[in-house]
């Protein structure tokens, strides 16, 4: 389903009341945050003798760590602007048979704000596309866990196989690492995951994760909350259903 173009989902997401509603319906449960996961190597557990005061402090630290792990990833509208034309120099048309890309690697610039430009074969000097910016940033400032090419797992066939295996959180976590939140590829992938979950009713598999809030906002924005509301009522989470309706109202009011 295409996103509703009339609502700026990023503007809605940044509202404090919307973030509070999304956090509430995510249902923070430490035991679920720290549940057993499939990893390559398990860390050796540490056994310590603690006083009551030390135990209370350790529990507080674990609680804060759990809260940090379910902090929602940013939600933004898809970047759709066409790269702006900076200059046209007809004297160099045909000088080269490939594009030349320029990047300012000065310290202190963010990946989003770093100056970049692309010289086309026809003499045009323009801003980079979103994908070109991503690749240039990765070449000079590679992000941890991020690959220069889009991972094969996001190809349609492999993505659908992962969804059928209910690997929703794995896919969403990997998308957060690989893409910026306004990258068209990120928006497309997360939308597919949310739509699939909505179709099969697997909402609870994202509950108490960092992705439940963004999924709820996506469904509210696109007026597809019937299934999630029914799921909440069935689980006796009526207050959550009311808050989800309020999120939908905020989408219409703010967007």
TrEMBL record:
Keywords: Ribonucleoprotein, Ribosomal protein. It comes from the Eukaryota. One of its GO terms (molecular function) is structural constituent of ribosome. GO terms for cellular component: mitochondrial small ribosomal subunit. The keyword Ribonucleoprotein applies. Pfam families: MRP-S22 (PF10245). This is 28S ribosomal protein S22, mitochondrial. The gene is MRPS22.
């Amino acid at each position: 389903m295409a996103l509703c173009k009339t609502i700026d989902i990023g503007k809605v997401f940044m509202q404090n009341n919307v973030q509070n509603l999304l956090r509430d319906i995510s249902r923070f449960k430490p035991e679920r945050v720290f549940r057993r996961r499939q990893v390559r190597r398990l860390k050796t557990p540490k056994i310590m003798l603690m006083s009551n005061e030390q135990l209370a402090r350790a529990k507080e630290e674990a609680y804060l760590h759990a809260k940090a792990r379910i902090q929602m990833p940013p939600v933004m509208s898809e970047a759709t602007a066409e790269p702006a034309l900076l200059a046209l120099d007809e004297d160099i048309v045909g000088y080269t048979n490939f594009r030349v890309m320029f990047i300012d690697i000065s310290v202190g610039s963010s990946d989003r704000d770093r100056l970049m430009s692309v010289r086309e074969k026809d003499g045009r000097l323009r801003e980079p596309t979103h994908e070109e910016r991503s690749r240039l940033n990765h070449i000079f400032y590679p992000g941890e866990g991020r690959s220069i090419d889009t991972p094969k797992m996001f190809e349609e066939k492999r993505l659908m196989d992962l969804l059928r295996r209910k690997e929703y959180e794995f896919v969403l976590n990997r998308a957060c690492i690989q893409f910026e939140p306004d990258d068209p590829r990120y928006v497309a992938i997360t939308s597919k995951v949310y739509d699939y979950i909505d179709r099969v009713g697997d909402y609870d598999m994202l509950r108490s994760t960092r992705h439940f809030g963004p999924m709820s906002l996506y469904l509210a924005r696109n007026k597809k909350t019937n299934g999630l509301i029914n799921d909440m009522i069935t689980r006796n989470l009526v207050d959550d259903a009311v808050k989800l309706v309020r999120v939908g109202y905020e989408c219409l009011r703010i967007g």
